[in-house]
Amino acid sequence: MKLNLNLKRKFQRFCLILICLITLIFQSDIPNLKALPMKNYHDEIVIEELRLKVPADGKAAWLKAEKEIWDPWLSSQDGFLGRQLFWDKEKEEALILVNWKSKKLWKSIPMSEVNIVQEKFEDNVKNALNVSKNPFELIYEGELDKQG
Description:
Shape: elongated
Strand content: 15-25%
Strand order of the largest sheet: 2-3-1-4
Order of helices and strands: HHEHEEHHE
Radius of gyration: 26 Å
């Protein structure tokens, strides 16, 4: 009886080791392990993605402020390739896609400078809508790498 119990334990350990080995072998084929580090993509086109809450009654003021404040400033930035503005009527959200020649050029812009432009944008909107705070809440900020 003791021999049978000992054999059973050894078989359980063997199965556990076998499962671990199989799992380890298949894990080595994960694409992420073969991916290049992001630092290699500093010279590739990158797209800045911004999502804002833009209520229907503020849409015209948002578009006007984008054109008057952000367009001229962005156009003067090294590496700026253009941008697209979208608005989702159902969600009352804006999607802004800003194309940059490289992540390095985009990220070399000082945040202090961006904050000054953002403040001008907010002042423009607050005056146009006669409100005390910026009604266009930033929902998401990220980046997309161009594929193909």
